[in-house]
Amino acid sequence: MDMTSLLALKRDGGACPPGALSRFAKGVADGSIPDYQASAFLMAAFIRGLSLEETVELTRGIRDSGRILAWPRDSRPVADKHSTGGVGDKISLVLAPLAAEMGLRVPMVSGRGLGHTGGTLDKLESIPGFRTRLESDEFQDLVDRIGFAMCGQTDEIAPADRILYSLRDATSTVASMPLICASILGKKLSEGLDRLVLDVKAGRGAFMRTREDALALARMLVGVSTGCGTPARALVTDMDVVLGRTAGNALETAEALSVLRGGGPLVIRDLATRLTALMLQAPGDPADSLDDLQAECAARLDDFSALHRFERMVEAQGGDLSAFESLAPAPVILELKSDRSGYWTGVDAGVAGEVVRGLGGGRRRVEDEIRPEVGWEQAAESGFPVEDGQTIGWVHAAALDDARSAAETLRGAFIWDRANNPLILEVL
After folding, report:
1. CATH says 332-416 is which class?
2. In the chain, which segments carry CATH 3.40.1030.10?
C-alpha cells in the first residue's frame, strides 16, 4: 500500500494492513516518506487512534529503524526501567547501580527534561565532566564491565523516533497514548532487553493527571512491550507532590547520592528498591519473592556497594568524583518559612516543576542552557506537621529577585491536607 492510500485509510478510521506501519517507520527514518505525509499520518492516528496490534507494529518499526543492541547470552539478564516523567524523580540514579550490583545488565538510554519534568541526563551533567554522549560500542563495553551505563540516545538508536517526536511536537499530536507508547518503547526495546519495568506517574506534576489515565497508559505500555516480545511490569505512582525533598538537577543528584550512602528520603529508597526488585523478579517467580528481593536491594544500599558501583560508572564516563561533596552551589539560597500551623502535605508538583524551570533548571526550548544549581529543597519529606514560622524549605536561585518570586509562587502552591496519597497506586 502506498502512503497516500494509507493516509486515506487511517483518515477514514480503517485499520492499517500488516506490514504497513513497519514500512512507514522505515520510510520516515530513511527519508523516503516526507515530513508532510508523516505529519498527516500522526494527525490521523491522533484523531482515529491506533489499535493494540497497530501500536505494536509501529513500535517494532521504530525499534527496527536503527541499531538493536545485542548482549552475550549469559547469566546476567538485560533489564531497564522507564519513568513517564515527574518532578523530583531521581530514581534512575539510585536504581541503575543498584540493579547492576544485584546482577543485572542495565543499558540505560535516558532523556532530558521535558516541559516541567526533569531529565536524568540533565541531573548527571550537574557532575562536572560527566559525558552523556557515548557511541554504541563504548556504551556496550561499559555495561559489560560495570554492569550499567547511562547515556543519551545516539544517532544509531531508533532514528524514526527522533523525527516523529519532533513532528508530534510541531503538530500538537504529543498527547496520544498509542504514539506515546510507540515512542517510549521504540527506544527502550532497542536496548535488547530481556525485561522492562515502567513507572507511570499520576497527579498534578505528571503528564497523566488522573489515576485512570495513568492506569490506561500503564496497561497499554505493558501490552505493547509484551506484544513486541519483551515482558514488562508497571507501577502507577503518585506525582501530586515533589518526589523526595528536592527538585532541580544538582540538588536531586545530591539527594540520590545520599540514598546510595544508606540515608536520604525513605520515599526515594522505597521506590528505587521496589522497582529494582520488579526488575529482578523473573517471569514465573512467586509473588511473595518480591519482598525478599526488595530487602536484598536495601542491603546493597546500606553496605555502600551500589554507591561504589555508581562511582565506577561516573569515573568511567569522565565525571569528577571529588565534586560529589559540593555539586554546583547556587549564588542565592532563600529560606521559606510557614505562615500557619497545620499538616503540610507538600508542594503541588506541577507548580514546583514550573518554578524550577523558571529559575533556569529546565528548558522552554531545546537550545536553552540549564542552570544545574537552581531548584527547590524541602526541610523534610512531604507529609509532616509544622508550626507557624517553621522553616519549610529553601529556594536555590541565581539572583535574589528570582528567589523571592519563586518563593511566593511556591507558598501559593502549598498543600495542607492530612490525607496524603500512597506512593504506589497500582501494580501491573
Report:
1. alpha beta
2. 79-322
Inter-residue contact 326 to 126 (CB < 8 Å): no
Q: Do residues 119 and 111 make contact, with C-beta atoms less than 8 angstroms apart?
A: yes
187 as an active site residue: the answer is yes
| CATH architecture type of domain 79-322 | 3-Layer(aba) Sandwich (3.40)
**CA–CA distances in Å: residue 39 to residues 8, 24, 57, 173, 363:** 13, 12, 18, 9, 24
Per DSSP, what are the bridge partners of residue 348?
241
Q: Do residues 128 and 320 lie in contact, with contact meaning Cβ atoms separated by under 8 Å?
A: yes
Residue 418 among the catalytic residues: no
Nearest to 246 by CA among 395, 82, 397, 421: 395
What residue spans in the chain does CATH classification 3.90.1170.30 cover?
332-416
Entry pTM: 0.91
* Residue 161 annotated as catalytic: yes
| Contact (Cβ atoms closer than 8 angstroms) between residue 155 and residue 65 | no
Query: Tens digit of pLDDT for each residue in 141-198?
Result: 999 999 999 998 888 889 999 899 888 878 888 889 999 999 999 999 999 999 999 9
CATH class of 3-63: mainly alpha
Please pick, among 10, 63, 82, 123, the residue that the annotation labels catalytic: 82
Lookup: cell for 251: 540538588
For CATH 1.20.970.10, the residue range(s) in the chain are 3-63
Catalytic residue, from 161, 194, 199, 238: name it.
161
φ/ψ of 149, rounded to 5, equals: -150, 160
Could you say which of 136, 183, 190, 225 is catalytic? 183
pLDDT tens digit sequence for 313-370? 999 999 998 888 777 789 999 999 998 998 988 899 999 999 999 999 876 666 667 8
The residues, any chain, with a CB within 8 Å of residue 238's CB and separated by 6 or more, are 201, 202, 203, 421, 422, 423, 424, 425
Q: Of 112, 116, 162, 187, which one is the catalytic site residue?
A: 187
Catalytic residue status for 183: yes
